[in-house]
Write a structure and sequence with these properties.
This is Helix-turn-helix transcriptional regulator. The chain is of the alpha+beta class. It has six helices and nine strands; from the N terminus they run ααααααβββββββββ. It has two domains: about 90 residues, lambda repressor-like DNA-binding domains (434 Repressor (Amino-terminal Domain), Orthogonal Bundle), CATH 1.10.260.40; about 100 residues, Jelly Rolls. Helix 3 crosses helix 5.
Amino acid sequence: MSDEPHFLREERVEISRADANSEAAVEPLQLGKRVREIRLSQNLTLEEASKRTGLARSTLSKIENEQISPTFSAVNKLVKGLGIDIPQLFSQPKRSAAAGGRRDITRTGTGTPHPTPTYEHEMLATQLTSKKMIPYRTTVRARSFEEYPEWVRHDGEEFLYVLKGSLLFYTEFYEPIELFEGDSAYYDCEMGHSLVSTSEADAEVIWVTA
C-alpha cells in the first residue's frame, strides 16, 4: 500500500479528471490543414511554397491533404521556408470567444513585401492572425502569359480591383479580358487565374482573398 496521504491521492485523481476533460474539449490538430492555412495566409501557391521549403510540390500536397505525416526533416524545412516557428505550426489558430475590436492599420509602404517572378506583393494587415480575408497590394510584373509555368489556383474566393494601369485577366474557363483603372472582378480562386500588365507601366491592383 502507498504511504501517500489519502487527501493527496484524491487531489491527484481530481486533477487527472480535469486534465482528461480539458483534453476531450480540445480539437485535435490537423497538421495538414494548419500547413495549408499558413501557406494561404502568405498567399503562396503550392509551387511557390515548394521552392521556399525545398519540399516537392507533390509532397506538400500530400501533407496538406493528410495523406502523409511530415518527417522531422520536412517539419524543419516547412518552418524555415515559411518563416515561422515550430509552435506556430503545431498550435491551433487563436479564436476569439466573442466578436471583439480587432484592428490593424498598415501605413503607406509599410506592408510586408513578398516578391515572386510575376508579381510583387505587399501584404497588408499582417499583425492580425486567423483573418477571414487576406488583403494585399500587388504590382503586376508579368508581361506575357507564358511567364507563368502553371495556373495560379488556391482555396477560397477573391476580389480584384485595378488601382493603376491596365492588364489582361486570364481565367481557366473564360476568354482573357482587359481590365482598366477602377475595374474589378470577383471569382473562384480554385479556378486557374493570372494577370499580365498591358499598360506602359506595370499595373497595380488590390487583392482580397477570402
